[in-house]
Amino acid sequence: MVLMALAVISMVFFQAWSYMGPKLEQWFGSSGPRTVVGTIDGRTVRFGELLEFHTKLRQAAMADLQWRVDLSRQATDSEMRQRLVNLYLQIMAMRFPWVTEVLQERMDAAKTIVWVALYDEARRAGIEATRAEAENYLKSVKDAGLSAEAIQRTISQAGGGDRTKFVEALRTEMTLRMYVQWLGETLSGAVDPEVRRLFAQVDERIKVRLAVLRAADFVSQVGEIPDPVIQEQFNKYKSYPPGKGPEGFGYRIPDRVAVEYLVADPKAFEEQAKPKVTDEMIRQYYEAAKDTQYLVKDEKPAEAKKDEARKDEAKKEEAKPPEKEYRPLEEVREEIRKKLVEQESAALARERMEADVAEIRAAKRGADLAIWADGKQVRRVALLGLHTPEQLAELAGIGKAVRGSETFPADAMAMMELVGQAHAKLSVMEISEPFVGPSDECYAFRVTNIEKSREPTSLAEVRDRVVTDVRETKAFEITREKARKLLETAAEKGLVAAADAAKVPVTATEWFSREQPIPSVPPEIGASRVVVGECFRMTDEGRQRTLVTLAENRTAVVAEWADRRPPREAGYAAQRMSLVNRVGGQVGRAALAQAVSPKSIQERMAVVVTLPEAQPRQHDKTGETDENADPYADLAP
Predict the structure, then answer these.
(1) Which domain covers residue 9, as residue numbers?
(2) Of the candidates 82, 89, 73, the residue with the CA atom closest to the CA atom of residue 147
(3) What is the pLDDT of residues 240-270, one digit of tens each?
(4) Strand partners, 560
């Protein structure tokens, strides 16, 4: 029996290992660090080399990510924010395709060998970051405002605490970054035909005559709309949000909230603020601002200035720098006092609102806000009905109120996705933190009721909007038909005469290019790339007139060619260098995307992957491998 049990156990173990052995071998690097996983240009590449390379890139990427977060948190003033921007404009000037891969803890050997090949190519080209360059990078992070302790903490977390190894990791990542940048600069060439095509877009100009017909002008010609047509329109689009359905229709009721708020107006605090503004405060403000606000400008004529400049140049060795002249303090004292009073009034309004918010939060939820409103310094306002975010944004004063980067409409609507959840930013009847309006008025609001987006209960709820849409649709049909007739008539006697007979105004434009909006016409027409493109098609195809319909604006435009100014050779000579940079950038980005694509690197560097089961490069939603997909195609312009 014992022997039989052992035999059964042995058989089960053998079968289990037969299945799991290859899987474990694949998961944990086949046979270990010495396992050959492929070749690069004939050079043998082992699993241990890939793992070490992946670890280095991961350490550098994790450090970059952590330092960016730490510096962002510390960027409390504009100077530090600018230092942070300058630093990371250098570091993250472009998206490096390996970053997202190496942040994954588990290495993908089939992908990593490609980046090793690119690293080899960089070193063959003589590009390799030095230890000094890596140390300088660490110094730049410190100069941007990060403490030595924070840097060392990141090294410990990302690099295991060994500074020497961490610097080597930085060198590896910096080498790749330098090489990709060099590739981008090297590949940014431009050929003359491409530059000339761009110049034609920039410099060729035309004039046209435009007749614009709007559906709004023909709504009065639409007869009564039958009820079945209105009902059909409602049924077709009632499930779509406003403006999001086919043809731009939608009658679903959006998220809406009811709001009430307290507002503290700084003007009501001015009498309280006046005693706080002292003569010493006025003097300090004057001294700090006199170079920018109170410097007396030199109003001498230009010739007199030139004479003085020549005299100064002749005796600049012995002349002293001219003394600056300022408006005297007494002359601007009341002006400064007024500014300081306004500042103190705004501060008092904020203090009052902060104190009120603290009291309201201490009281039970649902307390009457009228208790904190005295009608003079603080007022209570209850908005009638439910409001959408767009309606909240249009409210005077509070609609533009902000708190840091947060806006009142966004915060008022933020709870909609988090209703009933413990981590909701605000809940119904909970007072907000103070928000500041465009005139320094201070607000605190609360949402008193919410309504989630829903379909209308019946046509009656949105009937007016449905009827308006149907009438405008019918009016647009009339507009297009009249525009077609106008185009036909213009072919016989010209656009101006045809438009006069139809009582449609005609606009004669100034010169414009393919890259410009059409001047002298309404922005929604002149800025339309469809309209601009159609106008230039007339010159390309030899047509005299064209018709453009803009469904979004329910507008039809009849255009007639007037004149053309071809590209100027002298202009080409003057602009060629800047045009080369533009075209070269486009060509270079496309070439760089190709140069750093895994498939391209594999072909250049003769990369051969010999993993037992090479991991697929990319999967579609079904889990099947897409051999033709290029995961770095998004680098192309």
Answers:
(1) 1-29
(2) 73
(3) 988 888 888 999 998 999 999 999 999 999 9
(4) 209, 545
Q: How many domains does the chain have?
A: 4
Helix then strand then coil, % of the chain, to nearest 5? 55, 15, 30
CA atoms of 415 and 449, how far apart (whole Å): 11
Q: What pLDDT sits at residue 257? A: 92
Residues 511 and 532 in one domain: yes
3-state SS, 288-330, equals HHHHHHCECCCCCCHHHHHHHHHHHHHCCCCCCCCCCCECCHH
Query: What's the chain's Rg over C-alpha atoms?
Result: 35
Residue 60 is assigned to a structural domain of this protein = yes
137 and 2 housed in the same domain: no
Q: Tell me 578's DSSP state.
A: H
Beta strands in 179-301 (DSSP E): 205-214, 256-264
Q: Is 26 helix (H, G, I), strand (E, B) or coil?
A: helix
565 three-state secondary structure = strand
pTM of the model: 0.53
Q: Are residues 301 and 180 in the same domain?
A: no
- End-to-end CA, the chain: 73
Alpha helices, DSSP H, located in 249-301: 270-273, 279-293
Same domain, 446 and 471: no
Q: Please check whether residues 302 and 171 belong to one and the same domain.
A: no
Task: Collect the ranges in the chain with pLDDT lower than 50.
Answer: 1-31, 89-95, 317, 418-424, 613-637
- Residue at token pair 């709870």: 415
